[in-house]
Amino acid sequence: MSADYEGSTKSNPVQITEDEAAVYDRQIRLWGLEAQQKMRNATILIVRLRGTATETIKNIVLAGIGKLIIVDTDDVSEEDLGTGFFFRDDDVGKKKVNAAKTRIESLNPLVTVQAISHDVFHDRELLDALVMSVDLVCVTDWHREGLICINEVCRCVGKPFYAGGTFGLLGYIFCDLLKHDYISPDRSAPSDAPRNLKASTVYSPLHMALRHRWTALTRKQTKELNPAVLHGILAVWEYQHAHGKLPEKLEEAPQLLSIANSLLEASGVNKQVLDTMPRELMEILSTGASHEFSPPCAVVGGMLAQDILKALAAREAPVANFFVFDGTSGSGTVCRMNM
């Protein structure tokens, strides 16, 4: 088992060579050599290869992580060709990870890529071994219960966890980085004497974040966080849990609206800001949540990759802890959920 899931070797880290330094010169100037060294020695696990993951993988591989492990049991479908730019027409019917592996490797030959197409999620021993072998886990476009489960496995072995995905025009990123230490610029220092400060943030697991109540926020703070989009995403998760599938047609909008309003009431959102969920948003989700569109996938996947690299490099503050993207307006917000 350990041979199958051989992660980074902490006792003997890989040193960046002169040739690698030349490849990553721009990033080293941006992040610093120490941060690039951390990325070079990191092993990242990405679960599920849909549009969001495709964009995330592209960015973290080009940035120069050490090893990428991709896990997906599904075959390539015709629908995957729209947002999955690692796939081609003749890949339809093949295992996603096998079809994507060579194209991912071609992005950056310095990165080792391992593909796993068998189910590791129904064998806790296998799953634990896999998670323990990596430095960070990222699960994309999965149902709520699956995300909670993997998050708990990560917590048990002390591994940072990211989740991300899209529901049509809407998207999200959640992260649980446990206790995360990082270097942050001191913005109070004089401009001619820039300084960095050590900072630390304690995160909460997904199951706790979902119990977040908004009652402590002012009307202005609540409005700035765009609670309708966040609760719309939570409603889709709840609908998926109840029905075993995502909503697919307009006739499902009333039930989705009912679910969203119940979640809205339970979380205590300021009624002066939002007393009922927008019907138009529910209609958009009821017809679009089961589909992928390239622009939202590019935005969410790009931000997800950027945040993963921030976490690895320990430079600047990552997302804390729930980001939502509204593709109908092109805006995004970050909400601290039960932190």
TrEMBL record:
Keyword Metal-binding among UniProt keywords: no
Tagged with keyword Nucleus: yes
Upper classification of the organism: Eukaryota, Fungi, Dikarya, Basidiomycota, Agaricomycotina
Official protein name in the record: Ubiquitin-like 1-activating enzyme E1A
Gene Ontology BP annotations: protein sumoylation
Source organism of the structure: Boletus edulis BED1
Keyword vocabulary terms for this entry: Nucleus, Ubl conjugation pathway
Pfam families in alphabetical order: ThiF
Top-level taxonomic group: Eukaryota
